[in-house]
Amino acid sequence: MILDTDALSAFVDGAPALAALWANFTGVSIPVVVLGEYRYGVTHSTRRQP
């Protein structure tokens, strides 16, 4: 399974549906572009805690 940015965010937020879905897969890939988008979003978030 290859994650996009929305799926990565949902996983980090603890979405229970993703945990159930991942039980059927043996591997998960996160593209470098997705990691970059996620990191950018976290560092520029207005809800970020110092």
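The above is record 1. Record 2 follows with the same two-line structure.
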Amino acid sequence: MNNNLFFPSLWRFIGIYLVQVVFLHQVSASLGSYFNIYLYPLFIFLLPIQLATPYAVLIGTLMGYMVDFAYGTPGVHASAGAFSGYARAIVFYTFAPKGGFSGKELLFVPAYFGWQLFVQAISIFLAAHIFWYFSVSYFTFVYVGAITLKTLASWPLSMLFVLLYIALFNPKI
């Protein structure tokens, strides 16, 4: 990642992390155990498109470990972050333009791809992240009903905050 992309990503990392652990953790705690809000997967999604998948997995794991440290959930968010770093490439490939990315698109954001494509991609990405998180959290498929309910309850709230973030900050770099 060159310097033109490093510093905006660093500031995004710090900002999203602080919002996640200071504000959204408290909001989620007051809403109850079924309603969790996760903004930090957006950071993984907003890494530069050309970033290799192993680096995205490492960065996602680091973000997850930092969230785990703040939440007191050792390894659960790190696992979800690593999964998201890997799943990101699959989602990008699925929604890539015909002929692939041109290199002019730095991030997968509405400024380059439009709102409809962005919302479709981030919806699938975020749903997969949240489902993975709750699956690892319970670590057994005996609770598949609770995993599904928590995913369905958390996903719309998380999407709301993701879309608010994108609308407010409109990242292009």
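The helical segments are 3-31, 40-45, 53-71, 76-94, 110-113, 115-138, 144-169.
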